[in-house]
Amino acid sequence: MDVVDNRIVHDGYDFNLVTGTTLPFDSAKFDIIISNHVIEHVGDENEQLNHLLEIRRVLKPSGCAYLAVPNKWRIIEPHYRLAFLSWLPLFMADYYLRLTKRGTHYDCLPLSAPTLKNLLDSANFNYQDMLVEAVRTTLNLEYSKSDFATFLARRLPSFFIRLLSPLISTIIFKMEVKDR
Known about the structure:
- This protein has helices at residues 45-58, 90-99, 113-122, 131-142, 147-155, 158-163; strands at 30-36, 59-70, 76-77, 82-83, 125-129, 170-177.
- The chain is globular.
- The chain has six helices and six strands.
- The protein is of the alpha+beta class.
- Residues 13-66 form the Methyltransferase type domain.
């Protein structure tokens, strides 16, 4: 599902073209939902909340969802590869894009962890921050031949990883529906 059909492979799965944040599915339809770097593209905070409410609506009561969001406070913004872009108010971000000839309008609204948690609370989700697990898994998978990375994955204290969370590029949550 996407707002633009950018598929290269067309066979073997269903694709739905959508506009807005309302999902074209019955309630309680899915066991698992993955929203991977989507919410920052759906619009303002109201649309972001609606995105989460729609995930909640179509998720089965026993289901779970994965939500990954670029950290608003990361130094290099991932879409345009510009330092501090996501830190700026939108009018300044637009100016920064024009000044650097990378675009004319900044259409991403990355979230900070506290803002995302507030939205998840408003959408009535139980959620678990997966930062520590994600860092350990990334070190093991991406740097499997590095003894140092393996050492860090096994020995780095969880509190230290959490302490570094403002510097980590992606916020990841596992979500489950609270009582409907």
